[in-house]
Amino acid sequence: MQEKDIRTRIKDFIKILPDTVSVKAYGSSIAYQSGYKADEKKQVDLIVIVDDIKKFYEDNLKKNREMYKFTPRMYFKHAKSSSLKKAAGICYTTDIEYGPDTYKMGVIEKEDVIDDLLNWKTFYIAGRFQKEMFTAKEDSQIEKANEINKRNALTVALLLLDKEKPTLNDLYEKICSLSYMGDSRKSFKAEDPNKIKKLASGSKEHFDREFTAKTDLYTVDKNEKIKIDHEKVLRMIDKLPIELKIKISDEVGDKRLSEAIVEIRKGITDYLTTIIKKSSMGQTKKGILTTGPKNSIGYALAKLKKGRKKA
User: Fold this and answer.
1) Where are the alpha helices (DSSP H) in the chain?
2) What would the pLDDT profile of 196-246 be if each residue is shown by its tens digit?
3) pTM, 2 dp
4) What is the DSSP string of 12-37?
5) Beta strands 101-109; 44-50: pairing state
6) CA dist., res. 199 & res. 34, Å (int)
7) Contact indicator for 53, 84 with CB cutoff of 8 Å
8) Which residues contact 20 (CB under 8 A, 6 or more apart)?
9) 37 vs 176, which has greater pLDDT?
């Protein structure tokens, strides 16, 4: 009997969960990244989107109690919604065994997903949704919000791109790099230093389809050099999330946008670094409760070892 592919197995897994709004899978199990052996077992990373995070855990503790170690089981049983929604609003559970796969499952409410996609409050969800994902269960409102999120990511990446003759790959790497600004994992070298390059090259078809094919902000020549329409890009600043626009405006002051690229870049960099650092640190602390101290420390050490080994 032929083994089911990973996407079919993910759909089978979500059937055992309580009601969900949408489910997305991401990471090396879905998107090709160089440096992994073909037969290497990869963790399946899931974002499970629900209407009510507290109710989801109440129901899942009844249906799938074995998914949780003692500390997270107690936390999810007694925590209020406000606690579950702290930091970036997502709660992760690791080392969930189902069939031949091991899952890391993040649960978050739909309203928090849409808020981050549209407003970049934490960039925790927005940054992940800009990269290649597999949608195991779709929600039209989330997909619509993500189109706006990707459009804004492209605008910001083009504004930050400072090479004189950039290529498509330079642009795709810049888009991938946005979610790592201020990420605490980078500070502690707990992430592969070549991750951005691997993401960009491994997901080229995704970026071609979801970004280049949908924009008129640049053209591409036969050597994949891009020519940016800077006037159009500057006009797109007005469509960026409001808090980011305010930060850019504070930096630019009375200057004309066309004469203030340095200030625009500083405003973007400062804004993203600040919100990502805050949400990243908050999620790391919350992980001790949602995955258990042993799993949380073990996961962090594994990432640290992996990051330094590939440095």
Assistant:
1) 6-14, 53-63, 70-78, 81-84, 110-119, 124-129, 140-160, 168-177, 184-187, 195-202, 204-210, 230-235, 242-252, 261-291, 293-309
2) 999 999 999 999 999 999 999 999 999 999 999 999 999 999 999 999 999
3) 0.90
4) HHHTTSS--SEEEEESTTTS--TTS-
5) parallel
6) 8
7) yes
8) 14, 48, 49, 50, 56, 137
9) 176
